[in-house]
Amino acid sequence: MKKLYIILFFSFYGGLFAQEKLLTKEEAIQSALENNFGIKIAKNDIKVAENNKSILNSGYLPTLTGNSGVNYNKLNSNTEYPGQFLDSGEARPDLEINDAESNSFNASLNLNYTLFDGLGRYYSYKQLKEQYQLSALQARETIESTVVQMFSVYFQVARLTENKNVLKNALEISNDRIKRAEYAFEYGQNTKLDILNAQVDATNDSISLLNAKQQLTNAKRDLNVVLSRSLNENFQVDTIVSFISPLLLDSYIAKVNENNVSLLRNEKNLKINEYDIKVNQSGYLPTVGLSGSYGWNLNNSAPSSFLPGQIIPGTSRDSYNLAVGASLTWNLFDGGGTTVRVRNSKIAYQNQELLKEQITLEVNRDVENARAIYSNLLNIYQIQEQNVLTNENNFNRSKEQFQLGRISSIEFRQAQINLLNANTNKNLAKYDAKLAELQLLQLTGQLLNVEY
Prior knowledge:
Layout: H1 2-18, E1 22-23, H2 25-35, H3 37-52, E2 63-79, E3 95-116, H4 120-186, H5 192-226, E4 236-237, H6 246-254, H7 256-259, H8 261-281, E5 287-300, E6 304-306, E7 310-312, E8 316-329, H9 337-403, H10 409-444
Parallel strand pairs: 1-4
Antiparallel strand pairs: 2-3, 3-5, 5-8, 6-7
C-alpha cells in the first residue's frame, strides 16, 4: 500500500509538472522589462527628465499674465453748515446723500520677455538635456541590475529543477533496490536487514526530494516577485545554458571604458558641472528684457456734495492704455555672491574629474576580478562535468557488482550518493558560471546586447 501511494504521488505531480508552461529566458526578460516595479519607476523618472528638458522649461519663452479687478463702494453722507444762513435768514439745512454707489473695473495683459540674460538660460537648457541623458543611464543601470537579479533567481529555479530530477532518479533507484531486496529475501539470498537498509535509504531520498520540491516552489515565487506576476503562477524554466565565446568576450572587455554605465554616468556629471560653471558666470553679464502691457479701466463715480449745498451727479470714465518698454539690468557688484558660486562650481568640477579617475580604476579592477572569477567557475564547471561522467561509470559498475552480490549495499549506496553529489555540484557550477558571465557582461556594458 505504501508503494502504491508513492507511485500515485509521483504520477500525479509528474503529470502536473508536465503541463506547466515553459518560461523561456527571453520571455522572462520581456516580462521583467514590462512589469518590474523598479523598472517602471526608472521609466517614469525618464519621463520627468524629458519634461524638464522641453522648451516649456527652458526660459526661452515669454511670460504673459492677465490681471483684472472690480471695486465697489456705497456711501451715505450728511453735510452740515453750522453758522450759515440762507438769503431768507433761515439756517442752511443739512445736505444728505444716501446710497451713493461708485464702482471701477480694470483688466490688463502684461507681456515680459528676456532677450539676453548672460547666456544663463542657454547653458541651463543644455544642462537639462544632459540631465535627461543621465536619467536614461540611471534607468539603464536599474534595468541591468534587475536583469542580473532576475537571472540569479531564474537560474536558482533551473538548478533546483535539475536537482529535483536527480533526487527523483535517486528515489527510483532506492525503490528498485527495495524490490530486489524483497525478492532476494523471499529466495533466501539475504536477510531482513538488507530490506530495512534499502527502506531507510528510500525514506531519506523521499525527504530530500520533498525538500527540493519545496525549495523549488519558493524559488518560483521569488521569480514571480521579480517579474511582478501572481505569486502562485506555475511554470518551468529553460535549463539549457550556453556561454559566450572567449574572443567575443575579450572584445567587450576591450571597450569597457566606452560602454560601462558607471563611467558614462560620470561623463554626464562632468558635462553638467561644466555647464554649471557657465551658468554661474552668466551673473557677470547684464540682462536685457522687453515688456508690454495693454489695459482697460472703467470708473463710475458716485454723486457728491459741492458748496454751496449742491449735488454733483456721478460720472463714468472709460480708458484704454498700451505701453511698451525695454530694460537693461546689470548687477555690477552683488557682494561677491556670483564669484563664490563660480569658484565652488569649479571645485565641484575638479572633484568630478577626480571621481572619474577613481571610478575608472575601480571599474577596471572589477572587470579583471569578474573575468578571473568567471574563468575559474567555468573551469570548475568543466571539471564537474567530467566528474559526473566518472561517477556515472563508477555507479554503473557498482550496480553490476551489487546485482551480482560482489559488493555490499553500503558500497552501492555510497556510489549512488557520489553520483548524486556529482550531479548537484555540476548543476551549481553551471549556473554559477553563467551568472558570473552575466555580471561580467554587465560591467562591460553589453548585458542588454547579447543573447542568453
